[in-house]
Write a structure and sequence with these properties.
Layout (H helix, E strand, L loop, with lengths): L1 H12 L6 E7 L6 E7 L11 E5 L1 H4 L27 H10 L1 H4 L4 E4 L3 E3 L4 E2 L4 E2 L7 E7 L6 H13 L3 E6 L19 E2 L10 H4 L9 E2 L11 H9 L3 H15 L5 H16 L3 E4 L7 H21 L11 E4 L12 E2 L4 E2 L8 E4 L2 H4 L4 H12 L7 E4 L17 H10 L3 E5 L25 H6 L1 H19 L1 H5 L1 E6 L3 E9 L2 E9 L4 E6 L9 E4 L4 E4 L4 E6 L3 E6 L2
Parallel strand pairs: 3-4, 3-18, 4-9, 9-12, 12-13, 13-16, 16-17, 17-18
Antiparallel strand pairs: 1-2, 5-8, 6-7, 10-11, 14-15, 19-20, 20-21, 21-26, 22-25, 23-24, 23-26
Length: about 575
């Protein structure tokens, strides 16, 4: 039965473009009912063109209200700076409902779920708990506010059964802040100063990001003992011997010194060993010496291969372990190097397949061709074999694109059709507010997912349908994100994408800003006369004649694929 489920999972994960089954979906901005495809032909999953959904675990969906309060976290906090109830079970629930599948998502990244500090901080703007997951207290445990290890295992299996990969968000740079419930780690583990200045390599990597955020001595190779507080915690929880035995085996196998970074690397890669997660989104990359990322990648890759050997009936494909890094302010125009001022580092050469691209939001109102051709050129030259993860809104970017949510269709076109991988931030597809009354700073970006709006507001439903249709087309066609771009016609604007990997080839044509009514799309030189194409947006089949296809509808977009 397990093997059958695994085979079904692989089939469901493979996006196709030739033959399709039909299901009714209301067309955006119209009452007309159209058909959207469900893929049935095998297509490879490609990280370079992945459609990744990023969510705050605590803010997305509350699947288990019984775990909403733990460790006495009951103090009143500033607006949106406490735990709100979202959890792993809530993510599972939406996977099972098909929410991500219908949105064309083929990978999910959620904020860290390891045990957070128990207390709250108060830096003068009101109390804050570690609801966001970036304030680790114990990397070896799941925070009960988010769920259990059993929940995490179920999440990975449920996602894989839908053909969706899982990215864990991991932090190696720092512990959580010090509170009355959370003592500072020993001084051979962390530094508590100086504060980062961000003008040189050293004052970016060997420093604390903000006040009261102890920085792990990731550059050190000096052996250290485990903190007494952590040992006492494990003893109280009845797992001291188990944790110590596993550490002994890890250090014997690897030969690493018992330096701080290697303990944490062991703890992080345990989640790969146990659950088979597909990749890491790595936090605060530029604040850690790059050799540490080599070490993390080496152990993550090893853990992934070991998991595959033990679970051959659950393997989705032969993709290696994937790491995407947050090098804050890295932009695709920089190519492979990040400039610290006095030193340049190629993080792609230190375990990262991809880096988050902080540049697209500033370019999103440029004409489409300027954006698309630039990204295609860089990805097929300087970054050949690597990729970037594009985004327009995020959890800690105070200057997101379209902060007032006035251009949701433009945002969908830019994010989902620009070459590279795409990061859909939860609520991009439902116009979730990015400005919240009473909230300050990044709390504005972290409101609860607006499920009620999606259920009740026609305008939000239309926006959502639009994101679904583009997302499904992107998932079904690696050419959209990972292929080469070429403009076919300037007016109306028509372009092609082509992706080839061995014997597999994917070709699509897309038209944007099209006129209403009858329209002619130039495809000469790409699809020959007599070729039958399917416009997945209007669910219309057309035949190429005289180097063009004719569509007649009121939509300003066309998504053309081959019919065989």
């Amino acid at each position: 039965m397990k093997k059958l489920l695994a085979i079904m999972a692989i089939i469901s994960s493979l996006a196709g473009c030739k033959k399709v089954e039909k299901q009714a979906v209301q067309q955006p901005e119209t009452k007309e009912t159209v058909q959207v495809e469900t893929p049935s032909i095998q297509v490879p999953f490609v990280w370079e063109g992945a459609n990744i959904y990023f969510l705050l675990t605590d803010r997305f969906n509350n699947g288990n209200p019984k775990n909403d309060v733990n460790f006495g976290r009951t103090d009143t906090t500033a607006v949106l700076r406490g735990f709100e109830g979202g959890d792993i079970q809530g993510i599972i629930q939406k996977i099972e409902e098909g929410y991500f599948t219908d949105l064309g998502i083929n990978a999910i990244w959620f904020t860290p779920v390891v045990e957070q500090i128990h207390g709250a901080t108060d830096e003068g703007t009101g109390k804050t708990y570690g609801y966001h997951g970036y304030w680790a207290k114990d990397w070896t445990a799941i925070d009960p506010n988010f769920g259990t290890k059993k929940d995490l295992g179920k999440l990975v299996k449920t996602a894989h059964n839908k053909g969706i990969r899982i990215l864990l968000d991991v932090v190696l740079n720092h512990t959580g802040p010090v509170t009355d419930k959370d003592p500072v780690w020993p001084d051979d583990w962390v530094r508590t100063g100086p504060s980062c200045e961000f003008t040189t390599y050293e004052n970016t990597t060997e420093c604390t990001l903000v006040k009261n955020l102890p920085d792990i001595l990731t550059e050190s190779d000096e052996p250290v003992e485990l903190p007494d507080a952590l040992l006492a915690k494990w003893k109280d929880e009845g797992r001291l011997s188990k944790e110590l035995d596993e550490l002994q085996l890890f250090f014997e196998r690897t030969g690493y010194p018992r330096a701080p970074r290697y303990y944490i690397i062991k703890w992080l890669t345990d989640y790969i060993n146990e659950f088979g997660v597909d990749g890491f989104r790595v936090d605060t990359v530029k604040h850690v010496n790059e050799d540490a990322w080599d070490d993390l990648h080496t152990e993550a890759r090893y853990a992934f291969e070991m998991w595959k050997k033990k679970h051959q009936d659950l393997i989705l494909d032969d993709n290696p372990f994937y790491m995407v890094g947050e090098v804050y302010n890295y932009g695709i125009s920089s190519g492979r190097d990040f400039d610290f001022g006095d030193k340049k580092v190629d993080f792609f050469d230190h375990g990262f397949k991809s880096l988050i691209n902080f540049e697209l939001k500033w370019e999103a109102d440029n004409d489409y061709e300027t954006i698309f051709s630039k990204y295609s050129k860089i990805l097929n030259t300087k970054l050949q074999g690597k990729s970037v993860l594009n985004y327009l809104t995020s959890h800690d970017d105070g200057s997101p694109y379209d902060k007032e949510r006035k251009k949701p269709y433009r945002a969908a076109n830019v994010l989902l059709l620009t070459p590279g991988a795409s990061q859909v931030y939860y609520g991009d597809e439902t116009n979730r507010p990015l400005v919240v009354e009473g909230a300050t700073g990044d709390a504005n970006l972290r409101s609860l997912m607006n499920w009620e709006d999606l259920d009740s507001l026609p305008e939000i439903k239309n926006i959502h349908k639009y994101w679904q249709k583009l997302g499904q087309f992107r998932r079904n066609h690696p050419a959209v994100g990972a292929g080469k771009h070429k403009r076919l016609a300037k007016s109306p604007y028509v372009f092609s994408r082509t992706y080839t990997d061995g014997k597999y080839k994917d070709k699509v044509v897309i038209g944007l800003d099209l006129p209403k009514g009858k329209k002619s799309l130039w495809v000469k030189g790409f699809f020959g006369d007599g070729t039958t194409l399917h416009d997945t947006y209007s669910n219309t089949e057309v035949v190429v004649a005289n180097g063009k296809v004719i569509l007649e509808n009121d939509f300003d977009i066309a998504l053309l694929e081959l019919v065989e």
